[in-house]
Amino acid sequence: MKLKLLRRLALALGAALPQVAAAQAPALTTFPVGTTTVTASALASNLSTIWELVWGPDNFIWMTERSGRISRVNPTTGQVLPLLTIPDVTESNESGLLGLAVLVPAAVPASTSYLVFVVYNYTDQGVLKEKLVRYTYTNGTLGSPVVLLGNIVATTTHSGSRLLLLPDNTLLMTTGDAQQQPQAQNLASLNGKILRLNLDGTIPANNPTPGSPVYTLGHRNPQGLVQLPNGRIYSSEHGPNNDDEINKIEAGRNYGWPTVEGYCDLPAEATFCTANNVREPLTTWTPTIAPAGLAYYDHPAIPGWRGSLLLAVLKGSRLTQLTLDAAGLAIPTRTDYLTGFGRLRAVCVSPQGRVYVGTSNRDGRGNPAAADDRILVLENRAYTATATRPAADFSFGLFPNPARRLATVQLPTAGYRLQVADLLGRMVLSQPPGASATAVLDLAALRAGTYLVQADGPAGRATRRLVVE
């Protein structure tokens, strides 16, 4: 029994450590981010309309392609390992296999059996629809599909859809308005919404409207969704011919579509916004750029991107950095990078600070190069991860452990950034470097379970296990 426990802990800690470095691929381009030189290279090529890239609990990239294929991609070698091509996916115009999320079941946190959630379009008696399906991944095989939510109205455009797993073991799913604009304001419709479900497809008891999966309403076509370590959630959304948006997602809020486009800056919009609890966007684009995948970057490898959202852009063909103010309520600056690779749909960040971007040039709206579609790697090749230093570099105290609401961290000196991650590697708490060698972690928002506390500072990086009761 003790050996099993040690093996599970070793696997969990191993997931937080850098992988063995791969031979560096040829640079396709370089660009500056502040004083850092970022190199872009190709990890994998000759793919077809990449839709989703997710960093998995196995330290592989999980990928969907719109035609219906789910694969794991080795981030060291670029080898694409197909798992399943879903037989009833309907790919037409914007429809097909869309968002994906991967979860280790809470009961077996170091297991190699995962729950895999996907959303896709299918045809039912000649009518296009959308559904959310849960698969089980075990021993290299993806199977046992369970439909959690189906029969969602769809067309060949405006289907969304991104998935986001939350720390409370619920799942968010974005849906587009399916070109039926008034339905975005109809609580009885699943279109033009962000939905929240339990992992078995049931409705959480604390959803904004009892008995309803609707978490937010008034969306046109949200195609990006991310949660920060502090719990804040952001989404990207396609506007019509104006007002693409970045939104801060808050439970129960209305995001205005179709009455409101962008800000509440017209008289009729202002009246509607006041009466309907509308949350204005943090920033907009006119002309539109077609914003897609959204990720959060907070790694020392590329300091100029720390604390920012990274946005994959389709029509605008670029990666955009969106800085956030301290409250997360404003985007003071927008900076564009990575032009010249066409349409960009998906983005994810590895624990080692590399950024993976998926192109979407074979989606019928791009001009594919011979090697498209590709997964591009953006990295600071001059960066040496402090986690590769010997474990004896430093240690820190953590007490009490197990803890309930508060835990005290005793560090060698001041100046350490603290991050708390669950055993999937998802950051659930982050504190900037402090002026004291003693820090206090507020654990009140964390569920009971096992976490990894990482201290990153002058002496390198160290990790300790923390049990929250």
TrEMBL record:
Q: Which domain of life is it from?
A: Bacteria
Q: Where is the Glucose/Sorbosone dehydrogenase domain?
A: 49-365
What's in the keyword line of the UniProt record? Signal
Pfam families listed in its UniProt record:
GSDH (PF07995)
Query: Which InterPro entries would you find in this protein's record?
Result: 6-blade_b-propeller_TolB-like, Glc/Sorbosone_DH, Quinoprot_gluc/sorb_DH_b-prop, Secre_tail
Q: Which residues form the signal peptide?
A: 1-23
List the protein's name: PQQ-dependent sugar dehydrogenase
